[in-house]
Design brief:
heterodimer; A: about 475 residues; alpha/beta; Rossmann fold; 3 domains; 6-stranded parallel sheet; 17 helices; elongated; B: about 100 residues; mainly alpha; about 70% helix; flat
Chain lengths: ~475, ~100
């Protein structure tokens, strides 16, 4: 295939990738986006494979078959496991970038030192640092999300952590600069693996102090890194398709990370270096706070008589696998003419948009999934706010209490509803270890128990009673 | 292979692509952020084209092994990324299929 044709194919692929993302702007066109993406990828692979410098085909075929064999089962994971699948995918992306950069360096070192220009060396160093740190960082994030036993879930912190981490990164950069200035020195091939090792270690150290509540942000940041590693690969290989596709990927990760940070009222740096999630010393003594409990029968009655019910789901709903029962409750209430909306906080779940996918799977129409900013003005008119497995995202301390670790975080105004029902598994504080004053408000009644059971009981109660 | 690579044009391409990316992604529905992330996973599998060149070139075996592993990793991303995105998108429906009897 001649070069002009290859370049034309890459140009078409770039356009299709942009359309793929453009069509993601609405659920109606989104599937078209997938087809555009697949077409772009097929064109890109075909054009590359047909280049004259590709002379051995056996290994390519084998690697593609192996990739398909692993990729297909990975696409069939339950939706609760999508965050860890995504993190794993970032790890693969980082690894691929790192390996290609490494291979290219050693190849040029032995077969064409004139190719190792300063610009290229900078690109190679950036590619391998980003690639390998994304690899180990994402693997660890995936392990934390999967709750692998030997990986600590709680943030791991130690003195001088940030100094150590940044020192390590600076050291990698210094070694990188030395390599860039002397890419063909006799010692260079021996020093190159040092950068790789530092990047691998840095990836691990970057993620161990991060707790579960920050995972949505971290996944988005790693997404961005994986994209930027592909951009660097494009600079190394002088390939514009790699640069454009990588830039789209990097931009996506960046925007998602910014949205997540805003939704938690925190900065990037604070997420990465803040070691959030340490259990706060819970203020004890003084006034003993008392939960007020409601019975299933009473709860069902109130729900039935409401005009507007807003359900506020959190990750607890997914953990309890309660989304299908929630759908049944939605059906029962709809049948009685009650309006039911779902209020979705941007950081509910373990990755951006996670809650929407889980509810869509339970067959709840997306037209009833409402973003926090759109539902909050309606909350004072809401008869019942039903909190299912959410905690920090409805905690009024974020508004009122300056000393609270979540102070300033935008929340769903559940406390403004006329009545609040909160389903809670136990009487312990939530993920961030913070007491939730919503539970002690004089409008709130608690329904203690597993979310799936409680919602199931409510449904039974409602379906048992006649429809008026 | 000539060494007259125009670095500046590569940097221009990067900056412009990044701005297009920011513009396009900003308008993606928040409903679809999880599928967005999985489709960008698939797109980041574009590293496949670098991997193919390294794997299939007439290079020493060690180099090609690294390429083959990278190719495997990218291909996994492409296949699982597109398939799971489509699987999730199929679930997003505006209306329930059989309308349960309206208010009674």
């Amino acid at each position: 295939m001649n070069n002009a044709l290859v370049q034309l194919s890459y140009l078409v692929a770039t356009g299709l990738f942009i359309f793929a993302l453009h069509w993601m702007n609405a659920p109606l066109t989104a599937r078209k986006g997938v087809y555009a993406g697949v077409a772009a990828m097929v064109i890109a692979i075909g054009a590359t494979w047909a280049q004259p410098e590709v002379v051995h085909h056996g290994w390519i075929v084998l690697a593609i078959i192996a990739g398909v064999a692993v990729g297909v089962p990975l696409s069939m994971v339950p939706l609760t496991a999508v965050p860890q699948r995504t993190a794993l995918s970032h790890a693969f992306g980082g690894l691929a970038a790192g390996l290609v950069g490494t291979a290219k360096y050693y190849l040029w070192f032995s077969e064409g030192p004139q190719h190792l220009t300063t610009f290229r060396m900078v690109a190679i160093i950036v590619e391998i640092i980003l690639g390998y740190l994304t690899f180990t960082g994402s693997l660890l994030a995936a392990g934390k999300l999967q709750e692998v036993k030997w990986i600590p879930q709680r943030p791991v912190t130690y003195p001088l952590q940030n100094v150590t981490n940044l020192g390590l990164l600076a050291l990698a950069a210094v070694v990188g600069v030395a390599l860039t200035l002397n890419p063909t020195a006799a010692w260079a091939p021996a020093l190159f693996p040092v950068v790789i090792l530092l990047a691998l270690v840095f990836g691990v150290l970057l993620i161990i102090p991060i707790g579960g509540a920050d995972m949505p942000t971290v996944i988005a940041i790693l997404n961005s890194y994986a994209g930027l590693a592909a951009v660097a690969m494009g600079f190394v290989l002088d390939n514009k398709l790699l640069i454009t596709a990588g830039a789209l990927d990097g931009a996506s990760g960046l925007i998602l990370a910014i949205i997540m940070c805003k939704a938690m009222n925190r900065s990037f740096l604070n997420v990465l270096f803040g070691a959030f999630g340490q259990a706060q010393p819970v203020k004890t003594g003084g006034d003993q706070k008392i939960y007020r409990e409601e019975t299933i029968e009473g709860g069902a009655q109130v729900l039935e008589q409401a005009n507007l019910v807003v359900i506020i789901p959190g990750y607890g709903m997914a953990v309890a696998q309660a989304q299908h029962k929630v759908r049944e409750l939605y059906d029962q209430l709809k049948k009685r003419g009650v309006s039911v909306k779902f209020a979705i906080h941007p950081v509910a779940g373990r990755m951006p948009g996670h809650m929407n996918v889980l509810l869509a799977e339970a067959d709840i129409p997306y037209t009833d999934l409402v973003e926090m900013d759109d539902i909050n003005p309606d909350m004072p008119q809401c008869d019942v706010a039903l909190v299912v497995g959410a905690n920090d995202v409805v905690n009024p301390s974020a508004r009122n209490e300056k000393t609270s670790p979540i102070y300033g975080m935008p929340i769903i105004d559940a406390d403004k509803a006329r009545t609040v029902f909160a389903i809670k598994r136990s009487k312990n504080p939530g993920f961030a270890g913070i007491d939730n004053e919503l539970y002690f408000s004089d409008r709130t009644w608690m329904l203690f128990g597993d979310a799936k059971n409680v919602v199931g009981e409510l449904v039974k109660q409602l379906s048992g009673s006649a429809v008026h | 292979m000539s060494e007259s690579i125009d670095y500046w044009s590569l940097l221009y391409v990067f900056v412009l692509a990044a701005f297009i990316g920011l513009g396009v992604i900003r308008r993606v529905s928040r409903l679809l952020h999880t599928p967005l992330m999985s489709i960008t996973n698939a797109i980041s599998g574009i590293a496949v084209i670098g991997s193919i060149i390294v794997t299939g070139g007439d290079y020493p075996t060690e180099i090609r092994i690294m390429g083959a592993i990278a190719l495997f990793a990218s291909m996994t991303n492409i296949v699982s990324g597109f398939l799971i995105t489509d699987r999730m998108l199929k679930m997003f429906k505006a209306d329930r299929r059989p309308k349960p009897d309206q208010r009674s």
